[in-house]
From TrEMBL:
<dbReference type="Pfam" id="PF00501">
    <property type="entry name" value="AMP-binding"/>
</dbReference>
<dbReference type="Pfam" id="PF23562">
    <property type="entry name" value="AMP-binding_C_3"/>
</dbReference>
<protein>
    <submittedName>
        <fullName>AMP-dependent synthetase/ligase</fullName>
    </submittedName>
</protein>
<keyword id="KW-0067">ATP-binding</keyword>
<keyword id="KW-0547">Nucleotide-binding</keyword>
<dbReference type="InterPro" id="IPR042099">
    <property type="entry name" value="ANL_N_sf"/>
</dbReference>
<feature type="domain" description="AMP-dependent synthetase/ligase">
    <location>
        <begin position="26"/>
        <end position="460"/>
    </location>
</feature>
<dbReference type="InterPro" id="IPR020845">
    <property type="entry name" value="AMP-binding_CS"/>
</dbReference>
<dbReference type="InterPro" id="IPR000873">
    <property type="entry name" value="AMP-dep_synth/lig_dom"/>
</dbReference>
Length: 631
């Protein structure tokens, strides 16, 4: 049953759990501390949350003020976020991977007076730019030993450790108890809960204003769609909570249902943490799922003839079994027996590496290649694909647990309307809602436009930008191209990504790039060709496979030349390019390419925090190399 039964604010979610779902002594958070996994109860969490609120009220923070969080995932994020949320202060979460210039811009644009940070690296980033941020008066580090980074620095902002905030706040909690209650009860669902800055693939970061209603109604709609989530789940959290996908699909869902949140130690230790924590749900991005897929295929096919044969046979039987189930046909006794054997010999070993209790994974933040989704379905791991944007709180559509259509992002959530609009004539081909769902419905392709409770209040301090994306009829224009397929929403590409070649042919890069990414030799690919006679690309090879194939040392990837000019390596990549080009129309095929030595990265400005390539940045950075491709 959906626990969100009234117009709740974000702090109401957590209070509802201890009032109606779990006692205060029940575990809420799990983290790795001093060599072991430790559980934190709701009671302990509330002690820290109230301490933060009391301290901030005592120094004058009030409803509508902004406080910034530059934090890696962990309990501190929950304490500070909930501590500010229940007194009406707005959460300004900053991606830990953002360059200093973007971080400085966000602090100045939001007018945040306080920032909390939890690693030496992030603390050093802040103190470098703090004096360029006039509104910033307080920096709160959560770790010991921060003082050594302040030697010789004359900061305008004061520095106070988080343990001092908690100590002082706990001594003030009783004194400020009525003020905390009054502040919490004074929050309207139309008030801004958070500013999340979206850099997009071009332009200056924009602060997306999401209200309490945006966030809680989005969680409620998600739980109406995926009724299988309940208070017994354990979510493993590793995607940044600064991103709205993880904040909604893990953090807010757990706060609403009473599920536990386990914080992974790091992305590098994720595989080990899955075995330790034994999660039932994990939110992931497509790139991680692709890497798991690639590793499983490699391990299954390269470890001896007999084992490879068994692995391929098991995948074949898994595919047959899944396809029979999808078609609502009985697998039959022979296929049932074969699937059980495939599960025992192969699939259970892969499932054990996720902890063995996984109910499903949720993929968001980008398009999951169809073959990757099908692979997980074949081995018995369910992947639910979702779609949304920061501006839509974020979830617009998500796969239903018992209705998988690979290559789509699922059914529209309750309370949301999605239209498909012709990009030339602005004619709206169709409007679909949750209630309109028809599993046989297909539509024409166009820009995806959205109405409903999920649409943001607007961009902070940018009324003209807001008018540009939310039209006079209330439609939010996503800039994504898509259509409906079998009743589910299917994303084709980004409108701004579209390339128009010299002959007027429209080329959407994403499906073309995904075709070439089927190669195990290719890690990243960036398509070029707008206004040009033919398509070219910058390609990043799969580094580990490249090192293994050509016996390369790490120093090879540190050379000054950003591009690899070794003919043998270029030919190695070209082998797969030629084979995969046969799957594409002639005008979509890559005619020439450069092999990039290092991956595209966030800190160099080449990628957004959600790992989308920034077209203008890349084209400017590598303008000379691109011209050489057309020389």
């Amino acid at each position: 049953m959906n626990p969100i039964n009234r117009d709740m604010t974000v702090p109401d979610l957590l209070r509802n759990v201890v009032e109606n779902i779990h006692p205060e002594t029940h575990p809420f958070l799990i983290h790795y501390y001093e060599g072991k996994w430790r559980e934190i109860s709701y009671r302990t969490a509330f002690e820290h949350i109230h301490a933060v609120s009391a301290y901030l009220l005592s120094i004058g923070l009030k409803k509508g003020d902004r406080a910034a969080l530059l934090l890696e995932n962990g309990p501190d994020y929950v304490y500070f976020d909930q501590g500010i949320q229940q007194i009406g202060v707005v959460n300004v979460s900053i991606y830990p991977t953002l360059p200093e210039a973007d971080t400085e811009y966000i602090l100045n644009d939001s007018g945040a007076r306080t920032i909390i940070t939890n690693t030496p690296f992030l603390f050093r980033k802040i103190i470098k730019i703090a004096n360029n941020c006039p509104s910033l008066i307080r920096i709160i580090p959560t770790f010991d030993g921060y003082g050594k980074y302040l030697n010789g620095l004359a900061l305008q902002a004061g520095v106070i450790p988080f343990n001092e905030v908690l100590k002082t706040g706990k001594s003030l909690t009783k004194q400020y108890a009525n003020d905390i209650t009054s502040a919490r009860e004074g929050i309207l669902i139309s008030d801004i809960s958070t500013l999340i800055y979206t850099s997009g693939t071009t332009g200056t970061p924009k602060g997306v204003m999401l209200t309490h209603a945006n966030l809680t109604k989005n969680v409620s709609a998600c739980l109406d769609q995926i009724v299988e989530v309940d208070q017994h789940e354990t979510f493993l959290s590793f995607l940044p909570l600064s991103h709205v996908f993880e904040r909604t699909a893990t953090y807010h869902v757990c706060m609403a249902t009473g599920a536990k949140i386990a914080f992974a130690q790091s992305i590098d230790l994720l595989a080990k943490n899955m075995v330790d924590v034994k999660p039932t749900v994990i939110c992931a991005v497509p790139r991680l799922l692709e890497k798991i897929h690639d590793k499983a295929i490699k391990n299954g096919t390269e470890s001896g003839l007999a084992k490879a044969k068994i692995f391929k046979w098991a995948l074949k039987k898994g595919k047959q079994y899944r396809e029979r189930k999808v078609a609502n046909k009985a697998p039959g006794p022979l296929l049932n027996a074969q699937f059980r054997l495939a599960k025992k010999l192969v699939f259970s070993k892969i499932q054990d590496k996720t902890g063995g209790k996984l109910k499903f994974m949720i993929s968001g933040g980008g398009a999951l290649p169809k073959n990757v989704g099908e692979f997980f379905g074949d081995i018995g791991i369910k992947i639910l694909e979702g779609y949304g944007l920061t501006e839509t709180s974020p979830v617009v559509a998500v796969t239903e647990f018992n209705r998988q259509v690979y290559g789509t992002v699922g059914r529209i959530l309750p309370g949301i309307t999605v239209g498909i609009q012709d990009t030339d004539t602005n004619q709206i081909y169709t409007q679909q809602t949750h209630e309109h769902f028809d599993p046989s419905y297909d539509s024409e392709e166009g820009e995806i436009i959205i109405k409903g409770h999920c649409v943001m209040k607007g961009y902070w301090n940018k009324p003209e930008e807001t008018k540009h994306v939310i039209d006079k009829d209330g439609w939010f224009h996503t800039g994504d191209i898509g259509k409906f397929y079998k009743g589910n929403l299917k994303i084709t590409d980004r409108l701004k990504n579209m390339l128009v070649n010299a002959y007027g042919k429209n080329i959407y890069p994403t499906p073309v790039e995904n075709t070439y990414l089927k190669s195990k030799r290719i890690e990243q690919i960036f398509l070029i060709g707008d206004g040009r006679e033919y398509i070219t690309a910058i390609i990043v090879p799969q580094q580990e496979l490249l090192k293994e194939t050509f016996n390369l040392k790490d120093s090879f990837f540190e050379q000054i030349n950003p591009f690899i000019e070794d003919i043998a390596i270029i030919d190695w990549i070209e082998h797969d390019i030629k084979q995969l080009s046969n799957e594409l129309a002639k005008f979509e095929r890559i005619r020439s390419f450069k092999v990039k030595r290092k991956p595209f990265r966030i800190d160099t400005g080449e990628l957004t925090p959600t790992l989308k390539t920034k077209r203008r940045v890349i084209e400017k950075l590598y303008a000379k190399a691109i011209e050489e491709l057309y020389g």
